[in-house]
Amino acid sequence: MESVITKKERDCIISLHDNFSLPVRLFNIAEMLNIKAPTAHELVNRLISKRILQKNNGVISLTNYGDRIYGDIMTAHRTMEIIFTESGVNSDEACSEIEKIDYLMDKKSIEKLLVNIGSPEKCPHGKPVKP
To answer: What's the CATH class of domain 7-67?
Structure first.
């Protein structure tokens, strides 16, 4: 990833992207991540300082940069998911394990892995490898 993020920041990015159709506010983030409001406030402020999130009239959303980070995380996640499932790991188990590390994966390494496994277009759950 271009920016160093924590697991909780990763989870926030994914949750925000997955709930993009709703106006997301601080209390929504606290609920989605099962954290207290002060913790959500600190998390959002960190991501704003990293230019990953933006806040407008209390509504929190991903920036263009945040969208790119989301895409990098999901590409890494889905690439590793394919490798795990092709190695015999159940797709749901693979998903749970990979979310622990997908945000740490280097984009160049993921691109090399994708080429090595034949550049598939979809992950085992049927979602595009590159969102």
So the answer is: mainly alpha
